[in-house]
Amino acid sequence: MRIKRGIAVGAALLLCGGCAVTNIQEKESHTGMQEITEVDESLIVVGFSQIGSESDWRNAHTRSVKEALTEENGFYLIFEDAQQKQENQIKAVRSFILQEVDYIVLAPIVETGWDAVLQEAKDAGIPVILDDRLADVDEELYTCWLGTNAEREGGDAGLWLADYLEKAGRDEEKIRIVTLQGTTGATAQIGRTNGFHKVLEQHDNWEMLEMMDGDFTQAKGQEVMETLLAKYEDIDVVVCENDNMAFGAVDAIREAGRTCGPDGDIIILSFDAVKAAFDAMIAGDINAVFECNPLHGPKLEKILNSLEAGETVDKIQYMEETYFDTTMDLESIRETRAY
Amino acid sequence: MSSLKKITQKRLFLPIFSMILVMLINVIYDMACGNAPLTFFTVTIKNGVLYGRLIDIFNRGTEAAILAIGMTLVVSSSAGTDISVGSVMSLYGGMCCMLLAGYGNTNVSNYAVPLIIGIGAGLLTACVCGLFNGFLVAYMNIQPMVATLILWSAGRAIGLLLCNSQIVYVRVPSFQKIGGYVGFIPTPILIAAACILVASLVLKFTALGTYIQSVGINKKASRIAGFNSAKIILLCYVICGLCAGLAGMVATSRIYSADTNNIGLNMELDAILAVALGGNSLGGGKFNLAGSLIGAYTIQAIDTTLLALGVSTAQSPVFKAIVVILIVVIQSEPAKDFFKKLGKKKEMAKGAAQA
User: Fold this and answer.
1) Nearest CA of chain A to the CA of B121: how many Å?
2) Is the predicted pLDDT of residue B1 greater than 50, yes or no?
3) CATH code for A2-148+294-308?
4) What share of chain A is helix, strand, coil (3-state, %, to 5)?
5) What is the model's pTM?
6) CB of A73 within 8 Å of any CB in chain B?
7) How many CB atoms lie within 10 A of CB B329?
8) Buried b vs exposed e over B187-213: b needs ≥16 C-beta within 10 Å?
C-alpha cells in the first residue's frame, strides 16, 4: 500500500504539474502537494469529479467538499471540474483509476452512460460514492449515494403549512392552493410535487386549484402567477418549487393589488433558500423557504471515514435539511449562508 | 388607390386571420366557462393599472414585437435570419446589470453607476453585436445563420462571465419601472409603441425601406444601380442588434435582474416565426412590417391563451407548432397554386402586376 500510494501521489503530482498553468486552484493544491509528499502515508486520496460551476448552489457544493476534505482532516483531494460535459467526467474517473486513488466521488451530470467506467473502477477495487444526482447503473457499481431528498422537502413544506394554519386558527377553513412547478420531469420538481401532495391528501379542507409549469425561472413564474390570479379570485397559498419562481409570483401578486407574506393575504412557500430568498423573507414577501442543502462536505467526510474504518454504510444517504420562516432571526442566518 | 388597398389587405389577410382564430379560441373558452363571451377583450382598471388579457398580450408581446422589427429588416435584406437575438438580449442584461450593480455584487439596492450609463452600455453592446454579425454577413459573405450562430452560443456565455455566473439583482424602483408601469399603462407597451412608431416613420419618410427590399431582391443589381448593398445589410444587422438590446432592456427590467441563463431563451425563434407568420418570405426581398408585428402579437396571443387554458408550458410548443405548420403550408407555393386554381386567378394576376 505504501508503494502504491507513492505512485498515486506521484501521478497526481505529474497531473497537477501539467495543468498548473491553466488553473489557479490546481496551482494551490500543487504547492500544498510538496509538503504532503513527506507525510503522504496517512492521507486518504480522493478523486472528485464535479459537474461544473453553473450556479451558486454548485459553487457552494464544491466549496463545501473542498473545505471538508483537507489535509488537516486526513484527505488528499484531486478535484476535476467537468465543465458540464459527461466525457470530461468519464475521463476524470479514468484518470482517478490510473492514479489509484483510494475513493472516487462522482457527481454525475446525467443519469445514464456510467456503466462501463464504473465497472472499470470496481475492477480496480476503488469504491465509488455518487454525490448529488443518481446514476442509472447497477447498485453493485457504487458504494453509496449522497443527495438531497426533494420529496421530503415537499413534505416538510406541507407539514409547515399545516402547522402554520393551525396556529392561525384556519385549520378547518377551506384553503385554496396553487403550485408553480419546476421544469416538468426535473428531479426536484417530481420530488417536491409528490412530497407536498402526500400532505395535501391528508387535509380534506385543502384544495389544489391548479399546478402550472413555471420553468424554474422568475419571468415565467411571474407570467404564470398573473394567469392564475386572473383565473382564481381567492388563492390562499402559493407553493413555488424554487426561489426564482417565488420572486416572480410576489411581483405578480403585488401588481394585481394583492398582498402576500406573513402580513398579507396570500401565503408563499418556496424551496432552495438562496440568499435572495432571505432578503424576500426579511422584506415580508415570502413566508417560508425549504432548504436544498449543498453543503455535502462534512457528511461526505463522515462517510469516507467510516469506509476507511472498514464499516459498511447505508446505500442511500440523505442530507439533513431544514427550513426558514419569518419567525426566525433571518438577518443573522443570512450572514451564515454560503450561497 | 382602392386596388392598392385591396392588396395590402390581402398581404395582411393571413396574419390577421390567424390572430382572429386565436382570439376566437378565447371567446369559445370563455363561453364554455360560463363567462361573458367578450371577457377576453375587456380591459378594466384594477389596482390603478390597466388589466385584462388583451393588455397581457400587448405587454408580454413587447419583446417579440421589438425583435420582429429588426428581424424583418434582416430577413428582407440578407435573405437569412439573425439567430443571435435571444443571446444578445441576455448579453444586454448581463452588461447592464453588471455595471449598475458593480462587478461581483449580486444584490444591490443602489446604482453603482447612473442608470443611463448602464442602459447605454447595454444597448451599445447590443449594437456592437449587430455590427459583428453584419460585418460577417455583408463583407465576409458568410451565410447569416452561420455568422449569427457565433453570437448565439457566445453571447449568453459572455453575459454569464460579466455576471460572474450569478443572477445579479438590481432592486431599484427606477430600474424596475422599465418593466413595470408608467401611470396606469405598462411601460413595455409604451416602449413597443415607440419602437414601432420610429421604425414605421423611418420606413415611410425615407427610402431606406426601398433600399433594403431591392438589396434583398437582387444584391448585385442593386449595387449596379448604385446602392451600397453591403452597407445596407450591415445597417440592418445593427438595427437588429439594437432591437435585441431594447427587447433585452424590457426583459431584464421585468425581473430586475440579469438571469443570463434564461433571458431571451428561444426568443430568436419567436422573432423568426413572427416574420414568417406576418406573410413575409424568409427568402428576402419584399417585406411587410405590420405583418411581422401582427405575427409577433399572434404568437403571444397563442402563449397567453394556452396559459389561460391551463396547458403546461412543456406542452404548449406542440400547439404553437400546429399553428405554424398551418400558416406555413397555406403560404407555400403548391398551396398558393391550389388557391389560384380555385378561381382567384384574376386577383393574383393583379397582385403580381402590382409587385
Assistant:
1) 23
2) no
3) 3.40.50.2300
4) 50, 20, 35
5) 0.79
6) no
7) 10
8) bbbebbeebbeebeeebeeeebbebbb
Q: Scanning the structure block, which residue is given the C-alpha cell 426583459?
A: B251
**Domain chopping of chain B, boundaries:** 2-332
Query: Considering only CB atoms, which chain B residues are within 8 Å of A256?
Result: 46-47, 51
- Asked if A63 is an interface residue toward chain B (Cβ–Cβ < 8 A), one would say no
- Looking only at the bridges linking them, the beta strands covering A103-106 and A144-147 are unpaired
pLDDT tens track for B225-271:
998 999 999 999 999 999 999 999 999 999 999 988 889 988 999 99
Tell me if domain A2-148+294-308 and domain A150-292+325-336 are identical in fold: yes
Angle between helices A2-19 and A24-39 (to 10 degrees): 160
Q: How many residues does chain A have?
A: 339
Q: Are the Cβ atoms of A275 and B107 closer than 8 angstroms? A: yes
**E strand spans, chain B:** 44-46, 49-51, 107-108, 168-170, 181-182, 185-186, 257-258
Cross-chain Cβ contact A223/B307 below 8 Å: yes
Residue-wise pLDDT tens digits, B102-153 = 988 888 889 999 999 999 999 999 999 999 999 999 999 999 999 999 999 9
Quick one: DSSP state of residue B139? I
- Taking each helix axis from N to C end, the angle separating B267-277 and B2-32, rounded to the nearest 10 degrees, works out to 130
For residue A230, list chain B residues with Cβ-Cβ distance below 8 A: 53, 56, 308
Q: Which residue does chain B place closest to A279, by CA atoms? A: B107
Kind of pairing between the strands at A175-181 and A288-291: unpaired
CB of B107 closer than 8 Å to CB of A279: yes
SS (H, E, C) B229-242: HHHHHHHHHHHHHH
Identify residue B160 by its one-letter amino acid code.
Answer: L
Q: Is B153 on the interface with A (CB under 8 A)?
A: no
Does the domain at B2-332 match CATH 2.60.40? Answer given as no
A-B CB pairs within 8 A amount to 71
List the single residue in B with minimal CA-CA distance to A259: B47
The distance from CA A281 to its chain's CA centroid, rounded to whole angstroms, is 21
Confidence (pLDDT) at B253: 94
- What the block records as the C-alpha cell of A174 is 377551506
C-alpha cell at B142: 458568410
DSSP A150-162: HHHHHHHHHHHHH
Give the residue on B whose Cα is nearest the Cα of A54: B165
* Residue ranges covered by each domain of chain A: 2-148+294-308, 150-292+325-336
> pLDDT under 70 in chain A at which residues?
1-41, 54
Name which residue leads in pLDDT, B1 or B345. Answer: B345
Instruction: For the domain covering A150-292+325-336, report its CATH number.
Output: 3.40.50.2300
Cβ within 8 Å, pair B47-A226: no
Do residue B49 and residue A183 have CB atoms under 8 angstroms apart? no
B109 touches chain A (CB under 8 A): no
